[in-house]
């Protein structure tokens, strides 16, 4: 009986440790070297954005949560863009380009919008399959936090402020 309780305690401790690791995103990793083709035909590489805090949001026009969260992403961008914060919205490969262009134009998205025509960007960023999936990258080019689904925007804003304050 004592061994069972001990084993149960070990299992609970392991799950708690794993949960804390995921919650705290202790497994920071370098953002993948990527080239994003923007709607205007230009390209932007992840290396070009080093030195900034970067939000990379994988989304689709057919994703209700993505559409609903976009005004909050815009507000976050507008609030911090002059402090070294940038945003890149990456439309999924299955999203018709005309829908993406229409969405970006009608909503006057102020940040960079790219289309992942081949699905390679989604694969490079951790095999993204669920939208929205959002990555927060620090000034050194490391992924600090990953959100699957809509982020907790007050918590995201606090994290952005913390990262912007770091040298």
From TrEMBL:
Pfam name, any one: Redoxin
Organism of this sequence: Verminephrobacter aporrectodeae subsp. tuberculatae
InterPro entries documented for this protein: Redoxin, Thioredoxin-like_sf, Thioredoxin_domain, Thioredoxin_ResA/DsbE_sf
Lineage: Bacteria, Pseudomonadati, Pseudomonadota, Betaproteobacteria, Burkholderiales
Lineage: superkingdom: Bacteria
Stated name of the protein: TlpA family protein disulfide reductase
Domain Thioredoxin: 24-165
């Amino acid at each position: 009986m004592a061994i069972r309780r001990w084993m149960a305690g070990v299992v609970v401790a392991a799950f708690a440790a794993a949960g804390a690791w995921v919650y705290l995103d202790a497994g920071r990793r370098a953002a993948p070297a990527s080239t994003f083709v923007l709607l205007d035909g230009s390209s932007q590489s992840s290396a070009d954005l080093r030195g900034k805090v970067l939000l990379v949001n994988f989304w689709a026009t057919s994703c209700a949560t993505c559409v609903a969260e976009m005004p909050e992403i815009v507000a976050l961008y507008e609030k911090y863009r002059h402090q070294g914060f940038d945003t890149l919205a990456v439309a999924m490969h299955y999203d018709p380009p005309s829908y993406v262009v229409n969405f970006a134009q009608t909503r006057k998205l102020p940040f960079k919008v790219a289309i992942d025509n081949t699905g390679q960007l989604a694969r490079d960023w951790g095999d993204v399959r669920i939208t929205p999936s959002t990555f927060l990258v620090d000034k050194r080019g490391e992924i600090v936090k990953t959100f699957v689904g809509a982020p907790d925007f007050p918590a995201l804003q606090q994290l952005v402020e913390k990262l912007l304050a770091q040298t």
